[in-house]
């Protein structure tokens, strides 16, 4: 088999995996639930379904494949910039049957393009890049659909086995000191890295300490019990205004008695599980209460990638190998984060646990381009979100597919958002 055949096969496998996930998330509910808006924060599920097909049509079938449009008439309806999520239910959207048929037609054409296009030579298709972009885009919307499932009321429709439990408990107050020095942040070589992860560049950091594990329910409950939500001094000015206006008193989906509702089931919150569904303001307030701060994005990435033995930045905390089920809680294999210490094989060389998987981790950093950033291939993927007050999240959650998660992968959201699968860890300066 030639190298191109191998790449084609990998792309086909990834396209199929993403599509199976999309359809599983859609088929879990009836048509009424698919078209209904479960929260003004989210699109109706049927919008996400047709939107992934529409982006695949635009980016792959038309741009790369230069094929005739399938449905040019629906482009604006599925353009995320034209219609905020709250307005999407009012659009004359494709109905569930039409949406499924549409994405199947587009996919057939995309597979046709995959067979016909040279995968090297044209910049867009080098290493199958645009196919990788499409796969990651669909998986990102699948995580968004999973977040919609979390907001949905009514009987549970999703199920998954529990994540592995730790063999050896890990102290949830332990920290790891990362020595001062330069490391390579971002990448110029990872084939499917998106434009905002590029280029690789040197960042010099003073020494810092970072939590060995994400902040747990136990630690977060201490903050709540200590009146953390009633003390403006722990909150930023914007954070305090938001906490009052939104009436925040505890993480989203908590009931205040050690239980939370998850995907339609009320469950006990294990004290040593990473806290989930907190916004950036809550994370920053907890850190201030604990006498600490959120790590910067660079600090997160150095903890995750820097190998003290070689000085090199690796792809993941455990090395360069792609994630497996033994490394990290990714890929919606489970519907919750794993307790801290559950992934000893995923630990970084300095001893930091669960940087990848379980919960997205809020960082202190505002989303912006790296030095030398160039748009590729569309301004709309990243650049239009730079310097607008979005905060960076790192590491992926239990709902993030491995194909859309790397040591360099950057996610971003508004500081008020907490329907995403987000938690955090804290850091401090070291003299
Ligand atoms: C990178 C997760 C912030 O979902 O808004 C989806 C990804 N971009 N469609 C998002 C994305 C275009 C994006 N995030
Ligand atoms: Fe999208």
Q: How do the strands and helices of this protein lay out in sequence?
A:
Elements: H1 3-27, H2 31-35, H3 45-64, H4 96-116, H5 129-151, E1 175-178, E2 181-185, E3 201-205, E4 208-211, H6 217-225, H7 237-245, E5 259-262, E6 265-268, H8 280-289, H9 297-305, E7 360-366, E8 391-394, E9 411-413, E10 422-423, E11 427-429
Parallel strand pairs: 7-10
Antiparallel strand pairs: 1-4, 2-3, 4-11, 5-6, 7-8, 8-9
Domain DinB-like: 14-145
Pfam family, one: DinB_2
Domain Sulfatase-modifying factor enzyme-like: 174-428
Structural write-up:
The protein has helices at 3-27, 31-35, 45-64, 96-116, 129-151, 217-225, 237-245, 280-289, 297-305, and strands at 175-178, 181-185, 201-205, 208-211, 259-262, 265-268, 360-366, 391-394, 411-413, 422-423, 427-429. The chain has nine helices and eleven strands. Helix 1 packs parallel to helix 5 (129-151), helix 3 packs antiparallel against helix 5 and helix 7 (237-245) crosses helix 8. It is of the alpha+beta class. Strand 5 (259-262) and strand 6 form a beta hairpin. It folds into two domains: 3-151, Four Helix Bundle (Hemerythrin (Met), subunit A); 175-217 and 231-429, paralog of FGE (formylglycine-generating enzyme). 30% of the residues lie in helices and 10% in strands. It has a four-stranded mixed beta sheet with strand order 9-8-7-10. Strands 1-4-11 form a three-stranded antiparallel beta sheet, covered by helices on one side. The chain binds N,N,N-trimethyl-histidine and fe (iii) ion. Residues 137, 140-141, 144, 411-412 line the site of N,N,N-trimethyl-histidine. Fe (iii) ion is lined by residues 51, 55, 80, 137, 141.
